[in-house]
């Protein structure tokens, strides 16, 4: 616009060239034009300046807006934080602020067995009295496990695990205190707890890779050894994992028995070593020894005529074992695939005396003589997660009959070997295949197939479908 | 106590040499190990419990971890229940009262930052939810700075003779870190508004920092592995709302990401996620440098 005016002015200038006399006038016009030009330039500059200023203001406004936004977000965040803090504070001020961590395990099975589970026995081995048989046929509810734990005070932690039996009644799996403040790697546990011997023994049944315990646990530890007593454990301050422990207990569970005497009825010691091989492999090996003195430990049997007899053992029981576990996962990332290999060996030696037919149901009631056993067993199992959530596993179990030296039979006190059918020479074995699916770490459905030759002359073909669910507090699983 | 340490060091010199360094730090994850290294230098002896190729949610309470926790003076973990599946067991089994929850020797990084994605519904039907919020806090450099300041004070508290040293190192680290953060923010400008598909909800802090928009996850719910049904839903939604790339962490299974990449015709970006996740992610600076480099490659 301004430029156009200038051009118009210039054209006017060119056209207006009538005479030299008009020079002065011309100069005047030129001067006017120059003034006009200057004025316009000034105006242009002012306008440009104003434009820049306006632009800057707009930019400022924008940045203020974005700042405001940030502040708003921040305010929102602190509001959220305040809200969380308020809700946490509300939670913390209630009566239940100190509630222990609670978790519950639901489990059950569908079982199909070719032999009667009520008549289960491991021939060749004195019954351990534990719940060692297969689950009942058809649908069956397993033990529901209720787990409570919390710190008691700065010095102790408490854990109670109750099993709610399907037929009713509550059993105490574990109920113990544990020290929190002992220095130098020392820990004391007291109450009822799963003994630290072996590898599987300390783990809860729902954490096992198979539905049931290895035969060697069923025969020598009554499925799983619970101790009522105290345990002292020490972890060495070394990079290699070194742990030793000792237990003093009542010894009232198999291979011990209720002794009704003062002092210590059973004691155990164990040691573990563990470490890593590269980033993919971790291992642990251990050895353990248990000594107890069962006094009047009963088991029932059927004599050669079909009478039920109760026999009683008194003497010593010494168990020692070795265990090992190796876990492999590519780069230690077990989420996608991993492999676990574990095995244990136990040997049980007993030296004492046996009383035949304590109730006197037969003519030989009360016959008593020496009784010595030296028996062993082992298992080896592997579980492979070949795809996220899916695992397959195989276990081989066997027990070695070893020697049973029964004075009643050897000395001809009446009963013959046929009157001790449970102690008949037999080598139990079992092959087990497992297939499980774990949608999350809180749920698992398992199919287990087994050919169990625990009983003399009979193979129990077993099919179990098992479910395991864990709710509540997130439990951590032992290695 | 010191004479006891000397005695034990002397008695176990063959196996326990690292235990005699000034401050034994047990770091749950590589990022906190790297941070403790920056702040502690040679005054701290750092053990990192997991590597970048492991899923930090699923770690075994291995015997080696118990052994290292036994002689630790300070445990540095994320908290917010990230390590709940294994750490409580390691702490109880180690018999080390110094590192119990609530003691000065127990440090949780998540306590020092503002948590994102705090669930309104704490229920396992929502997948692997963390009641405290998303625990993968370390991919926002401003969080690292906050944690560094808090961690430095903790180290100083536990090792008073070296307190000044930790503070000086932290000051120097934070200066370098601020500069680097400004540089990253400049470099990452092209990433603003980048649309991606994630794998697990473990990039939320990075996404928020850089303005990256995550339109979906390969996991149907946090912690659940990708399923075919979910993947085809995701593919269908990508046809409507296309993404530039599939982002996965070094520890995530590549298969699902590759499947989506092929079918949606978008590239896969593998991020280190933490220190050690890629060759270039040697320390915290390298972690961010490489993360941005890899993201910028697909943003163009």
Protein topology:
The complex is a heterodimer of chains A (479) and B (300).
Chain A: H1 2-15, H2 23-93, E1 101-113, E2 138-141, E3 144-151, E4 156-164, E5 170-179, E6 186-194, H3 215-220, E7 226-235, E8 241-249, E9 266-277, E10 281-292, E11 295-302, E12 308-328, E13 338-355, E14 368-387, E15 390-406, H4 407-410, E16 429-440, E17 443-453, E18 460-472
Antiparallel strand pairs in A: 1-2, 1-3, 1-18, 3-4, 4-5, 5-6, 6-7, 7-8, 8-9, 9-10, 10-12, 11-12, 12-13, 13-14, 14-15, 15-16, 16-17, 17-18
Chain B: H1 2-11, E1 23-27, H2 30-40, E2 44-48, H3 63-70, E3 74-77, H4 87-94, E4 106-108, H5 141-158, H6 163-187, E5 195-198, H7 204-210, E6 213-217, H8 228-240, E7 245-249, H9 254-264, E8 268-271, H10 284-299
Parallel strand pairs in B: 1-2, 1-3, 3-4, 5-6, 5-7, 7-8
Helix pairs in contact in B: 2-5, 3-4, 5-6, 6-10, 8-9
Description of the structure:
- The complex is a heterodimer of chains A (479) and B (300).
- Chain A has four helices and 18 strands.
- Chain A has helices at residues 2-15, 23-93, 215-220, 407-410; strands at residues 101-113, 138-141, 144-151, 156-164, 170-179, 186-194, 226-235, 241-249, 266-277, 281-292, 295-302, 308-328, 338-355, 368-387, 390-406, 429-440, 443-453, 460-472.
- In chain A, strands 1-3-4-5-6-7-8-9-10-12-13-14-15-16-17-18 form a 16-stranded antiparallel barrel.
- In chain A, helix 1 runs antiparallel to helix 2 (23-93).
- With 300 residues, chain B is an alpha/beta fold.
- Chain B folds into two domains: 21-182, Nitrogenase molybdenum iron protein domain (Rossmann fold); 188-299, 3-Layer(aba) Sandwich (Rossmann fold), CATH 3.40.50.1980.
- A four-stranded parallel sheet of chain B has the order 2-1-3-4, covered by helices on one side. A four-stranded parallel sheet of chain B has the order 6-5-7-8.
- In chain B, strand 7 (245-249), helix 9 and strand 8 (268-271) form a beta-alpha-beta unit.
- Chains A and B meet through helix 2, strand 7, strand 8, strand 9 and strand 10 of A and helix 3 and helix 4 of B.
């Amino acid at each position: 616009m301004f430029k156009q005016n200038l051009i118009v002015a210039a054209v006017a200038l060119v056209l207006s060239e009538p005479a030299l006399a008009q020079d002065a006038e011309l100069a005047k016009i030129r001067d006017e034009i120059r003034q006009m030009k200057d004025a316009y330039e000034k105006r242009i500059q002012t306008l440009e300046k104003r434009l820049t200023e306006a632009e800057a203001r707009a930019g400022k406004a924008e940045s203020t807006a974005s700042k405001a936004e940030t502040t708003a977000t921040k305010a929102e965040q602190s509001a959220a934080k305040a809200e969380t803090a308020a809700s946490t504070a509300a939670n913390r001020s209630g009566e239940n602020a100190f509630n222990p961590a609670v978790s519950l395990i639901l489990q059950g099975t569908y079982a199909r067995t070719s032999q009667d589970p009520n008549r289960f026995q491991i021939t060749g081995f004195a019954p351990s009295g534990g719940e060692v048989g297969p689950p009942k046929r058809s649908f069956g509810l397993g033990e529901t496990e209720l787990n409570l734990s919390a710190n008691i005070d700065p010095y102790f932690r408490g854990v109670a695990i109750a099993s709610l039996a399907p037929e009713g009644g509550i059993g105490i799996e574990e109920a113990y205190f544990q020290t929190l403040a002992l220095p130098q790697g020392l820990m004391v546990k007291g109450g009822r707890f799963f003994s630290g011997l072996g590898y599987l023994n300390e783990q809860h049944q729902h954490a096992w890779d198979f539905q049931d315990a290895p035969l060697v646990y069923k025969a020598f530890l009554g499925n799983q050894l619970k101790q009522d007593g105290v345990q002292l454990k020490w972890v060495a301050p070394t990079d290699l994992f070194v742990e030793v422990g000792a237990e003093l207990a009542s010894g009232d569970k198999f291979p011990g028995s209720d002794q009704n005497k003062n002092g210590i009825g059973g004691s155990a010691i164990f040691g573990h070593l563990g470490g890593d091989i590269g980033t993919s492999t971790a291992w642990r090996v251990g050895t353990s020894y248990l000594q107890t003195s069962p006094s009047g430990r009963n088991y029932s049997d059927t004599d050669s005529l079909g009478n039920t007899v109760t026999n009683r053992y008194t003497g010593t029981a010494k168990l020692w074992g070795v265990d090992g576990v190796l876990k492999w996962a590519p780069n230690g990332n077990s989420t996608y695939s991993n492999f676990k290999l574990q095995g244990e060996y136990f040997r049980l030696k007993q030296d004492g005396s046996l009383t035949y037919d304590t109730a006197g149901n037969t003519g030989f009631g009360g016959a008593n003589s020496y009784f010595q056993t030296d028996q062993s067993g082992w298992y080896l199992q592997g579980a492979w997660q070949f795809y996220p959530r899916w695992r397959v596993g195989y276990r081989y179990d066997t027990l070695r009959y070893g020697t049973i030296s029964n004075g009643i039979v050897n000395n001809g006190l009446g009963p013959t070997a046929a009157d001790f059918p449970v102690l008949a020479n037999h080598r139990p074995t079992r092959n087990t295949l497992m297939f499980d699916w774990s949608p999350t770490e809180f749920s698992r459905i398992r199919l287990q197939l087994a050919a169990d030759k625990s009983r003399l002359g009979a193979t129990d073909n077993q099919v179990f479908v098992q479910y395991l669910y864990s709710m509540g507090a997130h439990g951590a699983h032992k290695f | 106590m010191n004479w006891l340490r000397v005695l034990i060091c002397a008695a176990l010199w063959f196996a326990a040499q690292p235990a005699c360094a000034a401050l034994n730090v047990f770091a749950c994850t590589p990022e906190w190990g790297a941070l403790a290294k920056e702040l502690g230098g040679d005054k701290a002896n750092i053990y990192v419990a997991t590597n970048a190729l492991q899923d930090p949610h699923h770690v075994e309470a291995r015997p080696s971890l118990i052994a290292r926790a036994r002689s630790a003076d300070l445990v540095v973990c994320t908290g917010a229940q990230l390590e709940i599946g294994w750490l409580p067991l390691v702490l109880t089994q180690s018999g080390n009262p110094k590192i119990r929850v609530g003691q000065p020797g127990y440090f949780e990084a998540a306590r020092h930052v503002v948590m994102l994605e705090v669930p309104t519904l704490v229920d396992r039907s929502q997948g692997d939810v963390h009641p405290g919020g998303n625990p993968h806090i370390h991919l926002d450099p401003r969080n690292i700075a906050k944690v560094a300041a808090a961690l430095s004070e903790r180290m100083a508290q536990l090792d008073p003779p070296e307190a000044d040293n930790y503070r000086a190192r932290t000051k120097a680290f934070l200066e370098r870190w601020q500069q680097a953060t400004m540089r990253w923010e400049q470099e990452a400008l092209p990433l603003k508004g980048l649309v991606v598909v994630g794998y697990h909800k473990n990039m939320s802090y990075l996404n928020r920092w850089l303005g990256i928009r995550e339109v979906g996850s390969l996991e149907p719910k946090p912690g659940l592995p990708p399923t075919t049904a979910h993947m085809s839903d995701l593919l269908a939604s990508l046809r409507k709302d296309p993404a530039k790339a599939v982002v996965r962490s070094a520890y995530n299974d590549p298969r699902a990401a590759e499947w989506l990449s092929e079918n949606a015709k978008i590239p896969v970006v593998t991020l280190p996620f933490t220190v050690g996740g890629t060759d270039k992610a040697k320390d915290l600076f390298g972690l961010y440098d490489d993360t941005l480099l890899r993201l910028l490659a697909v943003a163009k």
